[in-house]
Amino acid sequence: MNSNFKKDINDGLSSPIKTLSSKYFYDTAGDALFVKIMNLPEYYLTKAEFDIFKNQTQNIIKSLNIEPDTFFELVELGAGDGTKTKELLKVLISENYNFKYLPVDISNNALDKLKANLNTELPTLKVSKKQGDYFDVLDSLKASNHPKVVLFLGSNIGNMEDEQAKLFISKLSNSLNISDNVLLGVDLIKSKDIVLPAYNDKSGVTKAFNLNLLNRINNELDADFNIDAFSHQPEYTEKEGIARSFIVSNKEQEVRIGALDKVFKFKKDEKIHTEISRKYNDTILNTILENSQLKKVTKLLDSKSYFADYILIK
Ligand code: AVJ
Prior knowledge:
Elements: H1 2-14, H2 28-38, H3 44-55, H4 57-63, E1 72-77, H5 83-94, E2 99-105, H6 108-121, E3 130-131, H7 134-142, E4 148-152, H8 162-174, E5 181-187, H9 192-198, H10 205-221, E6 230-237, E7 242-249, E8 253-257, E9 262-266, E10 271-278, H11 282-289, E11 295-301, E12 307-313
Parallel strand pairs: 1-2, 1-4, 2-3, 4-5
Antiparallel strand pairs: 5-12, 6-7, 7-10, 8-9, 11-12
The structure holds N,N,N-trimethyl-histidine.
N,N,N-trimethyl-histidine (AVJ) binds at residues 37, 45, 154-156, 158-159, 199, 206, 209, 275, 277.
């Protein structure tokens, strides 16, 4: 893990167009900042998807290929704190569905917290945490042959370029059996005055989240980034439907990364690309699904039509 981090940082900062991967946002400080982001007034995504889970739980259940008497596995990729999922879990339990909840995450720490919380709040729920790579876990589950519902929420797919998203969906589809479901949550293309503030909040939490990448490189790779000499710069056009985040160098400067024994030069106003947050519509989703065996069953929207949960079937 750490050697990958080191190589990726070196490759990204050595390239003519500097980039750092958003997957490295999530150290302990980054996890805590993301929880703050989800609670920001400007960050509508979490609230919109919660609205769907809270107010359209029956529509979700109706669209899934499940019956109260047939055992199924409810798998969640990148489970987080489970706030949205709990709304679905509560109703499935009260309606006597026979299932087990399998949250999958890279972070064992996040899984332990979630399991402890579920054991208190929903004591009758069967939970089995799965630490590891999404596809390793899915492949290990394929053999059991139980019907599956896979949740991939929060517009987490938005961090992928379209080509990567296609590949991800094909691999996901390949690790499922016929008639299994996927519940895919995506943020929808909408105007700049709504999207941009979600990535540029007044209180500066998203700025701290983005710049925390530099802190992480300082801490883990013995670097000397001066965080105050860099700015946070999000960009979005409705035409393209992609929010991009950059770290911008406020001046010409040099940064030494001890673990690489190397100095990196930054020009004034030079950008480091750190994240894409792709927004969707039906056309884009169709392209992503095109070469997979997954087909759309239902599209559920929140009351403001900001966010969609698509239910897919193999
Ligand atoms: C977790 C990928 C859905 O892109 O909206 C939030 C991450 N980045 N604010 C997103 C994020 C900046 C988030 N996802």
